[in-house]
Amino acid sequence: MPESNLQHWGLNPRIDFLNHGSFGACPTVVLNAQRDWIDLLEKDPIDFLAPERTLLTKLLHVRSVLQALINAPAKDIALIRNATEGVNAVVRSFPFEKNDEVVITSHGYNACNNAIRFAAERFGAVVKVAEIPFPVESPEQVVASIESMFSERTRLLVVDHVTSSTGLVFPVDELVRRAHRDGIRVLVDGAHAPGMLSVDLQQINADYYTANNHKWLCAPKASGFLHVKPEFQEEVRPAIISHGANADTESQSRFESEFAWTGTYDPSPVLSLPTAIDFITSLHPRGLSGLQQTNHELVLAGREQLLQKLNVSSPAPSEMLGSLATIPLPVAASFCPADAVSLQRKLFYQHQIEVPVFKLSSGLPCFRISAQIYNQVDQYERLANVLCEIV
Fold it and tell me: What is the pTM of this model?
């Protein structure tokens, strides 16, 4: 890893860590800020945690920082642990009726798809899966595949901003526009987007948008947010019902009150978010947009190394990538999920390379690379050489 950037993280320097996308990696300065918050909490847990004391003011500051980052009013933002929690809150609160339809995609995140199916089954709603090919040729192909699943019974579209398994940036602006034209609400799972892409929620105009702060914004683990349009906030309830359900709502809405307090928890991950944003913004002369562009160019360079050495065609246009890239593995048709697990372990334990290996729902064997500022092209070249030897 580049020494000048590695010093900011506690990552093992003997490991080529090419999997920032799974859980993120938190810089040391942010972890120190989190420890300071924990120390402050333990000096007086009552004063720190009680909503009527100082907690709400602290959380409002974080929401105000997010407001500037994602262009959405702070009052419409709830702080949560992760995007999966946000998806659960929306779909388990959604007013489904029997035979209503919810559309998901074949690139959707498994945990979120499980939550959607659970909620739909309770009401007798139907889950329809838009089969999006991979390799994929264009954003228009994504739009066509999803729109073909719409019917007069479709009530909700749940779609990723950046897909986890295939690393694709979906054209969410256009998907929201098409869905709204047909009277369909849209929940965008933006787990990977903040910090990887510029996120403008006013422009996207989704009814619900949820994301993680601990991935590309590099906040501590268990930090995320949920944005809900005002007209739907009375419907959306957190997965855990607590004191906020009947709290005094003169100073804030029930939406704000319920999500601000779901029981005793450690708020230090979300309170450390402003420090994380300040830090990653400082890593590039052009701020966060410069960092995002650098990471995008790095993942393209790394992908090119791998495509050439493995003799694999590009599975997606470069404009559909952010800081992730999924690449098909040139292996026999008999390659199974157990083989994927075995290969991933071999890369880690024998070659000290951390990278996910898996089979897509279509059956295509793949691996995925991430690009964060602590990575460099030589690491992808080394991965390519190792794969050429053992695959």
Answer: 0.96
